[in-house]
Design a protein that fits this description.
alpha/beta, 13 helices, single chain
Length: 361
């Protein structure tokens, strides 16, 4: 039975990946989920699988060398899928040190622990061992509005503390690949959306606020462009890279779904009005009048767009979910899991929301 160590598995993408893998492989694999459970880590995301005999949760911080080393010592880890990271740009602007600590030091700890566990005396590595580092398209900086794409060969040009910390972690992985021939891959993905996404990110934030008749904050002119990737398409890509990818290579994972932020908001409002019955009082309050333009984010990148040509050519992966279909799946999931949304939007999240948005012009 192959054992996967998944870091950050209680978060948005990590929990969807765990669901995908257990749905695909069942009891053929074992998953160890390591998560420190920050505000964005939520074990409710995994409550339907927590009793499975081939799934185990360990609460640990990836920066804790002793804890991570112990996990490798006590388990024969075959694959590492490293999601764990601080990921929200606004938070990185507010508190950059946390991002350096988690994203850079945490990745170094994970690399060292895996290297120590997998390396033979002659410097080679045990067969079948693989480390996949999940990163972001934001490391590449910003594109012009009128064209161009991010390729694996695009020079890094991060603009926020978040993207700089992810670029740094990517460079560490690349260094281990080059220096030690460490068996690793890097994936750089575009913006994910789907079930279990914490409502500080655009799509769940807009869904939740619209359903409660709250203002819909839009940075700047709302015309910043992102490439949107349905999270289960991303989970499939990660699995395929680990099974079919060439060790040492980087693969860009994009959705071919470029949308302006303001366009996303209008689509969400249209789908909410379509899905809500006339008898639901929330339907009447869902209006474009809720859209509120606020002071732009510092260093706000204008456009991201990934060319997933390499992963399609070498591995055969391509996105399967059109945005128009994925956003409906996502909204339907939030309708079916309103208790989940109520739980995550209480307490500290409310304090953060007020801090980030209430004082903007």
């Amino acid at each position: 039975m192959r054992t996967y160590l998944v870091t950050g598995g209680a978060g948005f993408i990590g929990s969807n990946y765990i669901h995908y893998m257990l749905d695909k492989y069942g009891d053929e694999i074992r998953i160890i989920n390591v998560d420190v459970l920050t505000y964005a880590g939520n074990l409710e995301n995994l409550k339907d699988i927590e009793q499975l005999p081939n799934y185990r949760f360990i609460r640990a911080d990836i920066t804790d060398k002793e804890a991570i080393t112990k996990i490798f010592a006590e388990n024969d880890i075959d694959r590492v899928v490293h999601f764990a990271a601080e990921s929200h740009v606004d938070r990185s602007i507010h508190n950059p040190e946390v991002f350096v600590q988690t994203n850079v030091l945490g990745t170094a700890v994970m690399l060292n622990a895996a290297k120590a566990a997998w390396e033979r005396e002659d410097g080679s590595f045990l067969p079948g061992k693989k480390f996949l580092h999940v990163s972001t398209d934001e490391v590449y900086g910003s594109l012009d509005e009128d064209g161009g794409y991010f390729y694996e060969t695009t020079p890094y040009a991060p603009h926020s503390p978040y993207s700089a910390s992810k670029a740094s972690s990517d460079m560490l992985v690349k260094a281990y690949i080059d220096t030690y021939h460490f068996p690793a891959n890097i994936t750089n993905c575009s913006n994910n959306y789907g079930p279990y996404q914490f409502p500080e990110k655009l799509i769940p934030l807009i869904i939740n606020n619209a359903l409660h008749g709250k203002k819909l904050p839009v940075y700047g002119d709302g015309k910043n462009v992102r490439d949107w990737l349905y999270v289960m398409d991303h989970a499939k890509a990660i699995d395929m890279v680990q099974e079919l990818g060439c060790l040492g290579e980087t693969y860009n994972v994009g959705g071919h779904n470029e949308k302006q932020n303001i366009e996303i908001i209008h689509i969400i409002l249209d789908v909410l009005r379509e899905k809500l019955p006339d008898s639901d009082p929330r339907k009447a309050q869902i209006s474009e009048d809720l859209i509120t333009y606020v002071e732009d984010r510092k260093g706000h990148d204008r456009r991201y767009a990934i060319a997933p040509d390499k992963i399609k050519a070498q591995i055969g992966w391509e996105p399967e979910t059109r945005f128009e279909d994925g956003i409906r799946k996502t909204i339907e999931w939030f309708f079916e899991n309103e208790d989940w949304m109520a739980n995550v939007t209480s307490g500290d999240y409310q304090k953060y929301y007020e801090e980030m948005y209430s004082n903007r012009k």
